[in-house]
């Protein structure tokens, strides 16, 4: 049988399949020789079938017995098979030995089938490994050369030709192309990338040649982090499976005790013969074993993890796949999560006598000398316009910047700073500023000499369809959806009103975010936190489920979170919750089916309507069916 403790072994090779085939051949030959009356040869072939087909289960069962002082179902199966063989030798009815060998064979075939099913799940997840290139083409010392990806260093220039895999994370220095990022982010459409854009290892380059600069070690690339998280997901056992494993150990002891009682009491209490008693006790050991129950959870959860990986949702372990479907409240960070995280010019308003282009030209002339993030945004917005860099530039931190442009003094900054340099602030622009600031925009004033040229509103753009995503989360039954942010309350409230959040917690430090999550947990128990920055890490760790943005997320956020949205698409959160709830439905269906089949087989055994081979077929067949049921999550 396939249990979590044997997952690694079964996925390494196909010895389970070979053992099952050899066991089947030996069983068939033993059965034929018995029919032909060649008992001596049959007594050589059938024990060989026992050894080859049952070796692994016997080894697992004895290891558990002697090292952990526990019984498991592997040992129960072997005991039942050996009991059938012993009964056959005692009564010289050698076809009982065939029954025991049939038990071993079906047990081995079942394990091989489950092993195949689990290897399929693992292949689906580990297909990520094939996305990593072994070599990279670099420009060193004026020459192109191929080197191992592991030998790349920060600062290396990597050349990627059309149709090649991107070998490592980097930033484009030269070139333009479209990239297929589906294996990494789950995006179905190719995306355009050009100078200054980041690219990720494992994505497929389109028709353009690219020159990249390596900005982090290859082992820190996004795909390598994904692979490490996948490996972690497969080694950690979710709480439901831990409960089932603990239950199995206690259950096995109960079955052994009940088996001993059934093998000794019926002749005295029910008048059964000893042969019937022992035979029924052996069937009881087989059909009462919780193999199907043990297979009810892990195949389903691993299939769900594989399904999520294909959609760009990375679950770090099965526990988080279980938990995300139970959340009743969700807290979102703002910058980089609900918003893109990159401010842009929202609106330009020119004063009387000036054009919008004049406002941008004058502002960009100064801001090109500034290190302020908003300065970069304004300079980018002025691309394509004709302007020259200002001179005698002097920054006033927290207020603005002053310089000389085309022989005139220019001032760019907040309203208080600019008002000190001009004769008057136009009333229409003051009203516009008030409206824009109430809407959460940052307003930059631009003045030339003593006249206001205009103002520029800068804002961090909301991610597309955020409001629709929030509405869909409510339809899924999420009771409370809030924002926790370090940004000012005015901006946060404006965004919350736009997208329909229940509550806003603003002006928060990282420890404040953690305390908000704790308060939400007191009220709603299961709370998810979605964030992307280092300041979100404490809250991500405290939440029942921490969800990080895979592209925009900091390394600390990615390491702390339980789930990663690889494409930074918040709508994937809804898919994660839906997948979790679907997996839980399948798990519950599997458990009900497994328990029901065990009860049915037990009743048939006590009614005397079932033989050992039929009991084995029913028991092992239900296990295979439960495993295959779990694999339904691989689709869709």
How many angstroms does the end-to-end distance come to?
28 Å
**Structural class estimated from helices and strands:** alpha+beta
Helix content: 40-55%
Inertia-based shape: elongated
Main sheet: strand order: 10-22-21-20-11-18-19
Largest sheet: 7 strands, mixed
Tally of DSSP helical segments: 25
Number of strands: 22
Evaluate the radius of gyration. 34 Å
Strand content: 15-25%
Poorly predicted segments: 1-12
- The number of domains is 4
Mean pLDDT: 81
Transmembrane segments: 17-50, 96-117, 251-272, 278-302, 591-610
Subcellular location: Cell membrane
Protein name: Heavy metal translocating P-type ATPase
Membrane topology: Multi-pass membrane protein
Write the SSE topology.
Elements: H1 7-10, H2 15-35, H3 39-67, H4 73-91, H5 95-126, E1 135-140, E2 143-148, E3 157-160, E4 170-174, E5 177-180, H6 182-185, E6 191-193, E7 198-199, E8 204-205, E9 210-213, H7 222-235, H8 239-264, H9 266-269, H10 274-287, H11 291-294, H12 298-310, E10 313-315, H13 318-324, E11 329-332, H14 334-338, E12 339-350, H15 356-367, H16 373-381, E13 391-396, E14 400-405, E15 408-413, H17 415-419, H18 427-438, E16 442-448, E17 451-462, H19 466-475, E18 480-484, H20 489-499, E19 503-505, H21 510-524, E20 527-531, H22 537-542, E21 545-549, H23 555-560, E22 563-565, H24 571-606, H25 612-630
Parallel strand pairs: 11-18, 11-20, 18-19, 20-21, 21-22
Antiparallel strand pairs: 1-2, 1-3, 3-9, 4-7, 4-9, 5-6, 5-8, 10-22, 12-17, 13-14, 14-15, 15-16, 16-17
């Amino acid at each position: 049988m396939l249990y979590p403790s044997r997952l690694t072994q079964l996925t390494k090779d196909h010895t389970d399949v070979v053992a099952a085939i050899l066991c089947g051949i030996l069983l068939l030959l033993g059965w034929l020789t018995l029919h032909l009356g060649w008992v001596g040869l049959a007594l050589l072939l059938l024990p060989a079938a026992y050894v080859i087909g049952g070796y692994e289960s016997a080894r697992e069962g004895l290891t558990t017995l002697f090292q952990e002082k526990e019984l498991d179902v592997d040992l129960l199966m072997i005991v039942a098979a050996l009991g059938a063989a012993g009964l056959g030798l005692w009564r010289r009815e050698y076809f009982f030995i065939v029954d025991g060998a049939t038990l071993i064979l079906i047990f081995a075939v079942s394990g091989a089938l489950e092993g195949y099913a689990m290897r399929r799940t693992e292949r689906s997840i580990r297909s990520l490994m094939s996305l990593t290139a072994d070599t990279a083409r670099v420009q060193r010392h004026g020459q192109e050369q191929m080197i191992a990806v592991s030998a790349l260093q920060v600062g290396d220039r990597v050349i990627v030709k059309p149709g090649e895999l991107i070998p490592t994370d980097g930033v484009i220095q030269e070139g333009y192309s479209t990239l297929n990022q589906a294996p990494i982010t789950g995006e179905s459409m190719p995306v355009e990338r050009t100078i200054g854009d980041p690219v990720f290892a494992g994505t497929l380059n389109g028709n353009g040649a690219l020159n990249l600069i390596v900005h982090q070690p290859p082992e820190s690339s996004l795909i390598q982090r994904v692979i490490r998280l996948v490996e972690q997901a497969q080694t950690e056992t979710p709480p439901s499976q831990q409960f089932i494993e603990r239950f199995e150990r206690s259950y096995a002891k109960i079955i052994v005790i009940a088996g001993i009682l059934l093998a000794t009491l019926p002749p005295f209490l029910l008048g059964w013969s000893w042969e019937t008693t022992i035979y029924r006790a052996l069937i009881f050991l087989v059909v009462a074993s919780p193999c199907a129950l043990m297979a009810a959870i892990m195949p389903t959860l691993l299939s769900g993890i594989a399904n999520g990986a294909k959609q760009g949702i990375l679950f770090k372990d099965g526990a988080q796949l279980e938990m995300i479907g139970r959340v009743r409240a969700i807290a979102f960070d703002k910058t980089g999560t609900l918003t893109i995280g990159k401010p842009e010019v929202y609106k330009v308003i020119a004063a009387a006598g000036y054009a919008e282009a004049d406002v941008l030209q004058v502002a960009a002339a100064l801001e090109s000398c500034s290190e302020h993030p908003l300065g970069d945004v304004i300079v980018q917005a002025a691309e394509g316009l004709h302007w020259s860099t200002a001179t005698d530039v002097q920054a006033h931190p927290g207020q603005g910047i002053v310089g000389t442009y085309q022989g005139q003094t220019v001032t760019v900054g907040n309203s208080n700073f600019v008002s000190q340099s001009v004769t008057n602030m136009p009333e229409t622009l003051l009203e516009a500023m008030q409206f824009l600031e109430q809407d959460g925009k940052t307003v930059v004033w631009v003045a030339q000499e003593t006249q206001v040229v205009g103002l520029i509103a800068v804002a961090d753009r909301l991610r597309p369809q955020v409001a629709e995503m929030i509405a869909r989360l409510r339809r899924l039954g999420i009771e409370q959806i809030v924002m926790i942010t370090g940004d000012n309350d005015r901006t946060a409230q404006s965004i919350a009103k736009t997208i329909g959040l229940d509550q806003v917690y603003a002006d928060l430090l990282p420890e404040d975010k953690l305390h908000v999550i704790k308060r939400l947990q007191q009220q709603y128990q299961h709370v998810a936190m979605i964030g992307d920055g280092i300041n979100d890490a404490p809250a991500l760790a405290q939440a029942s489920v921490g969800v990080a943005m895979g592209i925009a997320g900091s390394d600390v956020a990615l390491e702390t979170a339980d789930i990663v949205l690889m494409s930074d698409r918040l709508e994937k959160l809804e898919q994660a919750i839906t997948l979790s709830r679907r997996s839980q439905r399948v798990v519950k269906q599997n458990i009900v089916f497994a328990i029901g089949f065990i009860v049915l087989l037990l009743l048939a055994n006590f009614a005397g309507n079932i033989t050992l081979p039929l009991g084995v077929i029913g028991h092992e067949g239900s296990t295979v069916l439960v495993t295959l049921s779990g694999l339904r999550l691989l689709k869709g």
